[in-house]
Specification:
The protein folds into 2 domains: 100 residues, no CATH class; 176 residues, Farnesyl Diphosphate Synthase (Orthogonal Bundle). It is 62% helix and 0% strand. It is built from 14 helices and no strands. The N and C termini lie far apart (44 Å).
Length: 299
């Protein structure tokens, strides 16, 4: 990574150095992705991954993270104006080319940055609409950018993509409280906590209880419903992207199964997918071809 020039902005970048070497190869730019679309997908992923790390990784303070993300947004704005960017050139050089070549909607990139900046403040979500609004900016833009690359833009497809992306974000939340809560990030809506007689302070102890298990079970059912609501999109996308989306959907469902197998005890441990889960996911992805399209994914 090129060293930034001296000054306050430079010190912020230096304190939040994030290596992008290990992001050059990643699942969405795999054999399932058409060769012509690998560069724009790689540029999108790299942009989102680095921004997420600026918001999450390392010992930097909240103010340093916000400042770094604002500097990162300046890089995005420079890219949109076809101007050079002094910081993160490995991100914004390729991204500028891909935005211009494929006419990617700029607002979707800004939405992602809005969500990452919001994360820096460790907000409390009062209800599910507030949480889904966060997902609208933190997860849904990725799905919409991919649909844009595949030339799919009708309202039904966009709504189904949003449902899948929001569901996957929620599943990640219900999988990761043992990681998020020590960082003082709580994605459990206050309304759900209150309905189960819980508080944020109680969750922060990291102790699974009958109450937390009941709440997690309910929240997982909500996420699963959204995932199945969006899953008919797999029949709209032909070829490799359709198969990749099938695996994405089945991966989300499989994580939910892992959480259920733990009796929804994720405050103290994080369930993960392993190699033996892949054959199950592939088999179920193949079976989706024969399922009733009106009912969504099979599990």
């Amino acid at each position: 990574m090129r060293q930034a020039q001296s000054g306050p902005a430079s010190s912020t970048v230096d304190n939040l150095q994030v290596s992008i070497d290990h992001y050059e190869n990643f699942p969405v730019a795999s054999v399932l992705c058409p060769r012509a679309l690998r560069p724009p997908i790689a540029a999108i992923y790299r942009f989102a991954r680095i921004a997420d790390d600026l918001a999450d990784e390392g010992p930097a303070s909240r103010n340093e993270r916000v400042q770094a993300l604002r500097l990162y947004r300046q890089g995005l704005q420079a890219s949109l104006r076809h101007q050079p960017c002094d910081h993160w050139p490995q991100v914004f050089g390729p991204l500028a080319q891909m935005i211009e070549r494929h006419r990617l909607p700029p607002q979707l990139f800004h939405d992602l940055l809005d969500a990452f900046e919001q994360d820096c403040g460790n907000p409390i979500y009062h209800d599910r609409p507030q949480l889904t609004d966060y997902c609208r900016r933190s997860a849904n833009p990725i799905g919409r950018l991919l649909l844009h690359l595949y030339g799919v833009a009708d309202a039904q497809a966009l709504a189904q993509s949003d449902a899948i992306c929001t569901a996957l974000q929620l599943i990640n939340f219900w999988q990761d409280p043992s990681v998020d809560l020590p960082r003082r990030r709580c994605y459990f809506p206050l309304e759900d906590l209150a309905r189960h007689g819980l508080s944020v302070d109680e969750l922060s102890t990291g102790q699974d209880t009958v109450k937390t298990q009941a709440m997690l079970s309910e929240l997982c059912a909500w996420a699963e419903g959204l995932l199945r609501q969006g899953s008919p999109l797999v029949f709209r996308l032909r070829g490799r992207i359709g198969w990749e989306l099938r695996l994405v959907v089945q991966g989300g469902l499989r994580v939910l199964e892992r959480i259920a197998a733990m009796d929804h005890r994720t405050l103290g441990a994080r369930p993960t997918l392993q190699g033996r889960d892949m054959p199950v996911m592939i088999w179920r992805a193949w079976r989706m071809r024969r399922s009733d399209r009106r009912t969504g994914a099979q599990g």
